[in-house]
Amino acid sequence: MAPFHAIVLAGGRASRLGGIDKVMVPVGGRPLLAHAVAAAAQADRVVVVGPWRRLDLEREVAWVREDPPFAGPAHAVATGLAALPPDTDGEVLVLAADLVRPDLLVAALRGGEGNRVAVDPGGRRQWAACVVRVGDLAAAVSTAPTEGASLRSLIGRLDPVDVPVDAAAGADVDTPDDLEEHADD
After folding, report:
1. pLDDT confidence of 14, banded at 50, 70, 90?
2. Residues paired with residue 116 on neighbouring β-strands, in sequence order
3. CB 65 within 8 A of CB 137
4. Cβ-count burial of 26 within 10 angstroms (0-12 exposed, 13-18 middle, 19+ buried)?
5. Beta strands 62-64 and 45-49, pairing class
6. What does the alpha-carbon distance between residue 109 and residue 91 come to, in Å, rounded to a whole number?
7. pLDDT higher than 80, residue 17
8. C-alpha to C-alpha distance for 36 and 41, rounded to whole angstroms
C-alpha cells in the first residue's frame, strides 16, 4: 500500500460561531480536533495546520501555522504540504478538524484509486474531506496562487472522483445549531 499522510485543517476563525475555538468543542468526550487526528491513525505523518492546542493525542503530530494566518483553506493545505519532507510520495488526506465523525469519512475515502473527494447526500462536494496523490497536490500548489483561494479552486484542479458519503459522515460544526446538536453538555 502507498504511503499515506494527513493534513488536518484547524486554523479557521469560526466566525459563524462567534469566534470560539470550534475544533476544541467536545463531542463524545473529546475535542473535535482529537477526533480528526484519531481518524488519521493509519497515516505515516499527520500535520495539523493551525495554532498549537493542548491535547491528549495518541500519536505525534506536526503543528504548523500558515503565514499569514487566516489566508484561506487552500493556503493552509499548501502550508501543510510544505511541512511534509520533500521526498514524500503516496497519498495525502485533507481533513477539516470540525467534523463530528471524521472516522466515517476517512473509511470511505481510503479505498479507491486516483484523487477522491467526499460528496454529501445533497450532491455537494466536501472539499475539506478528500484523499489526493501527493505529487498531484504539489503540482497544483506550485501552479496556482493559494493565498485567499478556496479548496475547490485547488482540489478541483485535480479532477477528483466523487465518493458518496451519508449525512453522519459529513456532519460538522459550523453554526450555533450544529454546536447545540453535537457538542457535549
Report:
1. low
2. 131, 161
3. no
4. middle
5. parallel
6. 11
7. no
8. 9
CB 123 within 8 A of CB 103: no
Please, are residues 14 and 20 in contact by the beta-carbon 8 Å criterion? yes
**Residue 99 DSSP label:** B
Quickly tell me which residue has 492546542 as its cell: 53
First and final C-alpha spacing in the chain: 41
Sign of the alpha-carbon dihedral angle for 145, 147, 152, 155: positive
Is residue 36 within 8 Å of residue 43, measured between CB atoms?
no
Instruction: Provide the whole-model pTM.
Output: 0.93
Taking only the tens place, the pLDDT of each residue in 48-106 is 999 999 988 888 999 999 888 888 899 999 999 999 998 899 999 999 999 999 999 99
Q: In the beta sheet, which residues pair with residue 99?
A: 172
Residue 63 corresponds to which cell in the numbers above?
503543528
Contact present, 118 and 126 (Cβ < 8 Å): yes
The residue among 39, 57, 37 whose CA lies nearest residue 108 is: 39
